[in-house]
Design goal:
Elements: H1 10-15, H2 44-52, E1 55-59, E2 71-78, H3 91-115, E3 120-123, H4 125-130, H5 133-139, E4 145-148, H6 162-180, E5 186-187, H7 198-204, E6 209-210, E7 220-224, E8 227-233, H8 243-246, H9 257-274, E9 277-282, H10 284-287, H11 290-304, E10 309-311, H12 314-324
Parallel strand pairs: 2-3, 2-9, 2-10, 3-4, 5-6, 6-8
Antiparallel strand pairs: 1-7, 7-8
The chain binds zinc ion.
Length: 329
């Protein structure tokens, strides 16, 4: 199928998500679990309904990337900092988060500058409240993108219902829009947790792309009930993340940065062979430590040694993917 991406029209998108109406504000359903579990008593039809709500649609990898490149690469940083320690905001964990802003970020930005590389930073509003100075340092090179990553890095399933999720999303967008002077176009869910309502809310807010799902290693159209929603997914993976390897404490536990480098490199090599996409997700308070930034630096140098590697922000990649998948007029 070579359909054009569906235009982002809110009413059409809303019609795709009947589950969204399950939680009515003020009603008793507000505090029920947002997603009923699948059990031995769930019917086949119900299983399909639950699974089909958010699915991988059509593959969107273009025939070639800009300048004939064979692979697109995006370095993304989730700037969680102190917002990852909200459940127990004691001085020591808060300082571990603070490290991300005052030690990790400068080191990462200096490395990206040295490599002349663009990157995407997903920032919870709370991180910017505590460290507004990060904004100027990210924007200094003029190469980087900033995207939405929640209000206080809240788990979206813990919000009371679709109305509260909507409110927090709007607050997060507005906060970043005020700070940046322009509206962000990319969304990444805190902790990569979506509710059945999230995609509908992202469409309504006019996002260009999401980067929270994992059904493929290449760009794809997010589908719902067998129809394209028009939202582009630039998928992530726990394998191409730093959190599972180093943990949130940044405590230097094994595996060594060398071993993590090897995994990232192998993931990139496959994306290069398959001519698709490589998206890496790391966190300034985790990967901003010296030994780890050194490995990111080494990874970029390795990638640059290969021909035909295009480095872009996720916004640039999503725009290119969208343009290449437009049907001729
Ligand atoms: Zn996060």
């Amino acid at each position: 199928m070579k359909n054009a991406l569906v235009t982002l029209v809110a009413p059409a998108a809303l019609a795709l998500f009947p589950h969204a109406m399950l939680a009515q504000p003020g009603s008793q359903t507000m505090r029920l679990p947002r997603v009923p579990p699948i059990t031995i008593n769930t019917s086949e039809e119900q299983i399909r309904q639950i699974a089909d709500l958010v699915r991988a649609g059509r593959r969107l990898t273009p025939k070639s990337w800009p300048n004939g490149a064979r692979v697109a690469v995006a370095f993304s940083f989730d700037v969680d900092n102190e917002s990852l320690f909200t459940a127990r905001p004691l001085p020591v964990p808060m300082s571990q988060g603070e490290y991300g802003a005052i030690s990790g970020m400068p080191r990462i930005l200096a490395m990206l500058d040295r490599q002349q590389l663009p990157a995407t930073f997903f920032i919870p509003a709370m991180s910017l409240m505590l460290h507004p100075e990060m904004l100027e340092s990210i924007e200094k090179s003029g190469k980087h993108e900033i995207g939405v990553h929640g209000w206080v890095h809240e788990s979206l399933t813990s919000t009371g219902g679709v109305e509260e999720e909507q409110r927090l999303l709007t607050q997060s967008i507005d906060y970043l829009t005020r700070a940046l002077g322009k509206r962000p176009v990319g969304f990444r869910a805190p902790s990569w947790i979506l509710t059945p309502d999230t995609i509908k809310l992202l469409l309504k807010a006019g996002f260009l792309y999401d980067s929270s799902l994992m059904a493929m290693d290449e760009p794809y159209a997010i589908a719902s009930n067998d129809k394209s929603t028009g939202l582009i997914e630039l998928p992530i993976s726990w394998i191409r993340d730093d959190y599972p390897y180093y943990g949130e404490n940044g405590d230097g536990s094994l595996p060594s940065p060398d071993a993590v480098f090897a995994i990232y490199k192998q993931e990139f090599d496959v994306a290069y062979e398959e001519k698709t996409l490589f998206v890496l997700t790391t966190h300034p308070h985790i990967s901003g430590h010296g030994s780890r930034v050194a490995q990111l630096d080494r990874l970029i140098t390795y990638m640059k040694s290969k021909r035909g590697v295009w480095f872009g922000t996720l916004e640039q990649i999503a725009n290119y993917v969208r343009d290449q998948n437009r049907a001729p007029e």
